[in-house]
Amino acid sequence: MSAGFEPAQPEAGQRLRAARLLPWSGDEGKSSYLITDARGGRLSRLADIAEATQLDMGAQLLAHAEDMLPDATETQLRFLAERLAEALRDVLRVVESRERRTHGCACRP
User: Fold this and answer.
1) Rounded Cα–Cα distance for residues 72 and 37 (Å)
2) Which residue, of 34, 35, 73, 108, is most buried by count of CB atoms within 10 Å of its CB?
């Protein structure tokens, strides 16, 4: 007998999607995943907004970098390199998540 917890089952005619890699990390920097039905939900929409924001911020940072590179100091270059690395990490996570969803990858969460 269960302790009041029953695993969610899709309703008739629905199917669960593969685990979606979310655009943020969980505890200790570990990847976070979401399993939902084809309708998505509030967390899916929040993840979509976060992905769009990350991609936009990356594009803005790249434009800023291109403007400042010719005259940047060593300190500015170090700071810029750190931010670009963060933006690239975010963009690669978005790409991985979208690739999994596009190809229906049942990759490990």
Assistant:
1) 48
2) 34
